[in-house]
Write a structure and sequence with these properties.
six-stranded mixed beta sheet; alpha/beta; disordered C terminus; single chain
Length: 236
């Protein structure tokens, strides 16, 4: 069953027009006006970010929130910042992205069998959304999950994305096969309803610069997700 593209496009348009969280609205717009020196002459998006990728994806990657001078600037998740550079390169190595990097939303990047979203759709101050902001954004993630008809695997980047995804799945009536709440960890794996939830350290510089997340460690997550979704070259 293919995804209803019209419904997905309508959801994306609704996300872009969201003003639910006053603190996030004020911050994202202030950043878009103040900018930073290296992007001083560039226009900023300064709005919420919808998901991006293949509408018939079997893998959904759920991040934390847009970066103030990454997605909040370019208008696309994980685009124009170091975290995105790390992510796109991994997806390209796995054959799920058609290029190794992406710096602009209009560069023609194409994903195969992968879609990327965020637990919170606006850039938060200090990259730390509140619990209330997470919950205000949760219906968007819930609707996106419901529309992705081919979805099999959800990769949560970091504990925040893991917890946000678990809450959305629970609201939809999906419970872990063990009956216990799964604990986040890198390569943690939990069957939940029709999906498998897979954990990964977030590809932030805090993790990549310290060596907590290396290229082989991250590639292992992407390869596992592809295998679970039957996208691995040996399985497809």
């Amino acid at each position: 069953m293919t995804t209803d593209r019209a419904a997905l496009a309508a959801l994306e348009a609704e996300i872009v027009e969201c003003f639910r969280c006053p603190r996030l609205v004020a911050w994202r717009e202030a950043v878009a006006v103040d900018k930073v020196k290296r992007f001083r002459d560039e226009p900023y998006w300064g709005r919420p970010l919808p998901g991006f990728g293949d509408p018939d994806a079997r893998i959904l990657i759920v991040g934390l929130a847009p970066a103030a001078h990454g997605g909040n600037r370019t208008g696309r998740v994980f685009t124009g910042d170091a975290s995105g550079d790390f992510l796109w390169a991994a997806l390209h190595r796995a054959g799920l992205a058609d290029r190794v990097s992406s710096r602009r939303a209009d560069d023609g990047l194409t994903l195969r069998d992968v879609r990327i979203a965020a637990a919170v759709r606006c850039a938060p101050p200090a990259n730390k959304p509140t619990v209330d902001e997470r919950d205000a954004c949760a219906p968007f993630l819930a609707r996106e999950l419901g529309l992705l008809r081919e979805l099999r695997v959800i990769v949560a980047l970091g504990s925040f994305g893991w917890d946000a995804t678990l809450r959305v799945l629970a609201e939809a009536g999906h419970v872990p096969g063990t009956g216990r709440r799964p604990v986040f960890g890198h390569l943690a794996e939990a069957p939940i309803g029709p999906y498998v939830l897979l954990g990964s350290y977030h590809p932030s510089q805090q993790n990549t610069f310290t060596g907590r997340l290396t290229v082989p460690i991250f590639d292992a997550v992407i390869e596992r997700a592809a295998a679970l979704a039957a996208l691995h070259p040996s399985l497809s």
